[in-house]
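Researcher: Can you fold this with zinc ion in place?
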Amino acid sequence: MTYCISKEFHFSASHQLDGLPGDHPCGRLHGHNYVVSMELSALTDELDDVGFVRDYGDLRDFKVWLDDEVDHQHLNKVVGDRNPTAENLARWLFERWRGRYPELVAVRVAETPKTWAEYRR
Ligand SMILES: Nc1nc2c(c(=O)[nH]1)N=C([C@H](O)[C@H](O)COP(=O)(O)OP(=O)(O)OP(=O)(O)O)CN2
Ligand SMILES: [Zn+2]
């Protein structure tokens, strides 16, 4: 059995998706109020002495970076060579932060209240 914890983070950013048909609205410059969920996991016998998978407060480093580097930015510039879809953003964040948080199992990115994409190991 495993424990899972999750914490939600918010940022606003613009993007423009390449490769879509000319009449697709997401090919135009637009923005979202993004919600990112970081999910961390541990096996039953892996909780720390307090009983945490990891202190939610340890995710502050991620929040500071998100605020400094991603919030109110143009995602096409920030993520570099990838089309900034929700799927690609989830993978980009996962790969960037799995070293800092070894318990990280999934990153979920929601562009709207009705949609999300997740990258999970
Ligand atoms: N699989 C994906 N599909 C789409 C993505 C994506 O990242 N992954 N992104 C977009 C757009 O950037 C944007 O998120 C629009 O999404 P959509 O749900 O179509 O938004 P709407 O508000 O226009 O949808 P309604 O149906 O009007 O609620 C598109 N697809
Ligand atoms: Zn969009």
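Model: Folded with zinc ion in place. The beta strands are 2-15, 30-43, 73-74, 104-112, 115-120.
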